[in-house]
Amino acid sequence: MKNKKLVAGIFVLLMIAVVGVQLLQKQRIYNERMQAANVRLLEAQAKIDQRYIEVKAQLDQVKNKNKLSKHDLWLIQHLEKTVRHLEKAKKRAPPAERPWMTLQQMEHGVMLLILLLGALCYGIKNRQSHSEAPADPGFASKLHRVSPETDPVADKTHWQVMRGGGANFKTHTLIHTSPHQLLITSSSQMKIFYLVFIAAGINNVVFNLIKYVQLKGLDFALQNPLALFEQFFTVGLMFVIVGMAIRYFFAADRFCFDKNTQQLDTGNQLIQLGSLHALQVLEETVGGSDSQVFKSYELNLVLKDGQRLHLMDHGHYSAFNHDAEKLADFLAIPIWQPNV
Predict the structure, then answer these.
(1) Residue 251 CA to chain centroid, in angstroms?
(2) Hey, what's the torsion of the CAs at 329, 330, 333, 336, to 10 degrees?
(3) Where are the chain's structural domains?
(4) What is the three-class DSSP state of 74?
(5) Using one digit for the tens of pLDDT, what is the confidence trace for 241-269?
(6) What is the number of other CB atoms lying within 10 angstroms of the CB of residue 207?
(7) Which residues pair with 160 in a beta bridge?
(8) 99-143 per-position pLDDT tens digit
(9) CA 339 to chain CA mean position, Å
(10) Looking at 214-290, which runs of residues are DSSP E strands?
């Protein structure tokens, strides 16, 4: 496992290094081309200046004649027109340097990098979860699965799902922090999922601020803080809000089972492990005609009085079974499986 993480980390660093080298190479080529263009521009400007001096001298020479012929009059008109054109060329500002990469292109590049890194990390973690929890024939083959029909506590327990819906990937994971402590927390896949939303949103907000400061100037932006603050209200802010909402509503659950203290810490309350009676598994079909249909599995903790505590809900079948069995073995309680 450590070797896989090391290889994945090296691969990500190599990919970032390759992208960085390509950008530096592109910057070097751009600088060389701009330097050559500036040299050509200076040479052309010098020729215009020299030509202007020559034409101006010729015009003065013709005008200083005592008698002007028809040809001289025509030549004066021609030279004056030439002088005007050369003066316009001298006053014409040199073309603005075009940056090798615009802010919009940089924003899109960073966004693409965020999505690529997110997809890469998600794929690595997904493969790890499949290897850690191989596919299993089904619930009935599990050691701790029992039918709740003969348990009187089951009659006091609700059998509807506590949270409707669910994700088709592993949202929570079970971790042995020590031989006497077990932790249920959000999975790496879930963290990657909401972090991509947040990172993409921050990327959009930051570049929007940079564009505004570049357009209005730093002094104007600092003197008008309200207008600067309005630049935060972009599509990127909505992505940040969505990411934070996913983090708060779907990934904030954290349960710590500690045999040393004989307590379950939910973050909001402490429950004695002796009051835990069973684990409840519920299955539901998620999706509709316009989306992918999949099965989601909900794991609830049942207390001796029939009250329930929601632990996790996702569609990663093998990982769900694996975690449920580990938790049941750790707590020495059965898993209620209807129709066992």
Answers:
(1) 17
(2) -60
(3) 2-91, 103-336
(4) helix
(5) 999 988 888 777 889 999 999 999 998 88
(6) 19
(7) none
(8) 556 777 788 888 888 888 888 888 888 777 766 665 554 544 466
(9) 43
(10) 255-258, 263-265, 270-272, 276-286
